[in-house]
TrEMBL record:
<dbReference type="Pfam" id="PF02469">
    <property type="entry name" value="Fasciclin"/>
</dbReference>
<feature type="signal peptide">
    <location>
        <begin position="1"/>
        <end position="21"/>
    </location>
</feature>
<dbReference type="InterPro" id="IPR036378">
    <property type="entry name" value="FAS1_dom_sf"/>
</dbReference>
<dbReference type="GO" id="GO:0005615">
    <property type="term" value="C:extracellular space"/>
</dbReference>
<dbReference type="InterPro" id="IPR050904">
    <property type="entry name" value="Adhesion/Biosynth-related"/>
</dbReference>
<protein>
    <submittedName>
        <fullName>Fasciclin domain-containing protein</fullName>
    </submittedName>
</protein>
<keyword id="KW-0732">Signal</keyword>
<feature type="domain" description="FAS1">
    <location>
        <begin position="23"/>
        <end position="154"/>
    </location>
</feature>
<dbReference type="InterPro" id="IPR000782">
    <property type="entry name" value="FAS1_domain"/>
</dbReference>
């Protein structure tokens, strides 16, 4: 009897795991991926955690840790300073588009308005790009939107 109960609980837990994974919001999905620690630290420093855990939907073009590391030395540390919160927020919200935009929705030359207020340009010839950043992984589903992994930090127009 105990063995059957344990087996039933294990099976139920196993079957529930994929449903739980789909329930993760954008922030939790980024944390779980493990390659966005700098992005998550920046989101926290900018005070955007609750927003990106909100209802959404959002499309996030998420730079990897390597993308942040490619910035000039000291850039990330400087942006994380409290006195630079406004600039950091502007950069981060330039990576966010309202709505869930899947890769199948993208067209060559498409422009998308970001939460920051500027537009990003999507190109699809020779691989998908957002401005000058390559999309290296698309359509990572989250409960409140979608993440597209990019290989560079994109900067809003000044």
């Amino acid at each position: 009897m105990i063995r059957r109960t344990v087996l039933a609980m294990t099976t139920a837990s196993f079957l529930a795991m994929p449903a739980f994974a789909q329930e993760a919001d954008i922030v939790d999905t980024a944390v779980a991926a493990g390659s966005f620690t700098t992005l998550v630290a920046a989101i926290e420093a900018a005070g955007l955690v609750e927003t990106l855990k909100g209802e959404g939907p959002f499309t996030v073009f998420a730079p990897t840790d390597a993308a942040f590391a490619a910035l000039p030395a000291g850039t990330v540390d400087n942006l994380l300073l409290p006195e630079n919160k406004e600039q950091l927020t502007s950069i981060l919200t330039y990576h966010v588009v309202p709505g869930a935009v899947m890769s199948t929705d993208l067209t060559d030359g498409m422009e998308a308005a970001t939460v920051q207020g500027g537009d990003v340009t999507i190109t699809t010839e020779g691989g998908v790009k957002v401005n000058d950043a390559n999309v290296t992984q698309a359509d990572i589903a989250a409960s409140n939107g979608v993440i597209h992994v990019i290989d560079a930090v994109i900067m809003p127009p000044m």
